[in-house]
Amino acid sequence: MRVLLTGSAGFIGSHLTERLLSDGHTVIGVDNYISGQPANTQLFLDHPRFSFIEADVSTNMPVVQEPLDWVLHFASPASPPHYQQHQIETLMVGAQGTQNALELASRHGAKFMLASTSEVYGDPKVHPQPESYWGHVNPNGLRSCYDEAKRYAEAITFAYHRSRGVDTRVIRIFNTYGPRMRADDGRVVTNLVNQALRGEALTVYGDGSQTRSFQYVTDLIEGIIRLMGVDFHEPVNLGNPDEYTILQFAEVIREAINPQLPVVFEPLPQDDPMQRKPDISRARELLGWAPSKSLHEGLGLTVAAFRQPQTAAPLDHTA
Ligand code: NAD
Ligand code: UDP
């Protein structure tokens, strides 16, 4: 396949690039580095089936002359501090960026995938969250630039599927972690792992009773590849249903790195969802997919990567 991947220099984009190349595909990565890392592009630059275009897909989506089989739209700031620092750009990439990517897929007759999010469920009142749940989202709060952008992105993806016949896929990704996350992205996994490695107190926002369910990145990538291989257009949750309170998560980090570390409590950010856990029945039935890595295993791999001076590990390009 010839694949155009937006957001290729991001955390998930880099793992997806790695998997696509090792499966024998050709990858054209596109990124403007608003939240991604040049080191993630650097990893693949000498691979014969990888090329990279630096561009903002909201305003300057590249015109590709060669045929494309897949357009995978993963560009968007994803961590709350990043998207709150870039609110308008986040809305633009969910709206105009998604439309530009859909137009590209439509012109090439390519399959399209949207990286949507569990944030479309907002602060959910249904638990765990099945794809049929419409969500509970503050339309103008601090998180709205991300949540509503992704809800619009889903809507326009479905519009292109219904009105233009584009062969679309929509995944709703739940909290995903692993090597190559930006150390300064402000998400709970990177904050706490780095605090623990530096011997600092672990910051827990609120009383730590809010929950998240953490998925290791290679499990997500496997779900993405499987979904591209089936004919299915409704949204699919991809996440690990093992649910932890944030205080329990801090305890797991302490046990893994340094049990002596204190926890400090800081104010809970506005509209922080109180619980989140995917119902993955659809992915199980449709794709025969379920996460394979426990939090313990996945964190072990992540911590090992964060102990290295550079988290972007070199690849075997013979694949
Ligand atoms: P990330 O910030 O590491 O990667 C996103 C990439 O998109 C970055 O490299 C950034 O520079 C690029 N980008 C953003 N706007 C762009 C634009 N206008 N033009 C070109 N490139 C642009 O985040 P991530 O965690 O890798 O997330 C990737 C995708 O998955 C995002 O769409 C995100 O919303 C979605 N997602 C991630 C998670 C998670 O837990 N990591 C959860 C749900 C959804
Ligand atoms: N959080 C925390 N300490 C931190 C960073 C985040 O307690 O240093 C909390 C945050 O308030 C939220 C949860 O951890 O309840 C997950 O936050 P993250 O930013 O990783 O992702 P999201 O809120 O988008 O799920």
Q: Can you describe this structure?
A:
This protein is α/β, with parallel strands linked by helices and 319 residues long. 38% of the residues lie in helices and 17% in strands. The chain contains 10 helices and 13 strands. It has helices at residues 11-22, 38-42, 80-85, 87-108, 144-164, 188-197, 217-228, 246-257, 281-287, 295-307; strands at residues 2-6, 26-31, 50-54, 70-73, 111-117, 168-173, 176-177, 202-205, 211-213, 215-216, 235-238, 243-245, 263-266. Strands 3-2-1-4-5-6-11 form a 7-stranded parallel sheet, with helices on both faces. The protein has a two-stranded parallel sheet with strand order 7-10. Helix 1 (11-22) links the parallel strand 1 and strand 2. It is globular and about 55 Å long. The two termini are 15 Å apart. Nicotinamide-adenine-dinucleotide (NAD) binds at residues 6-7, 9-13, 30-36, 56-58, 74-78, 82, 93, 97, 115, 117, 173, 175-176.
Ligands bound, unique: nicotinamide-adenine-dinucleotide, uridine-5'-diphosphate
The residue fraction in helices comes out at 25-40%
Report the strand count: 13
The quaternary organization reads as single chain
How do the helices and strands follow one another from N- to C-terminus?
A: EHEHEEHHEHEEHEEEHEEHEHH
What Rg, in angstroms, do the CA atoms define? 19 Å
How would you describe the shape? globular
Q: What's the story with the biggest beta sheet? A: 7 strands, parallel
Structural class: alpha/beta
Keywords: Decarboxylase, Lyase, NAD
Cofactor: NAD(+)
InterPro entries: Epimerase_deHydtase, NAD(P)-bd_dom_sf, UXS-like
Domain NAD-dependent epimerase/dehydratase: 3-230
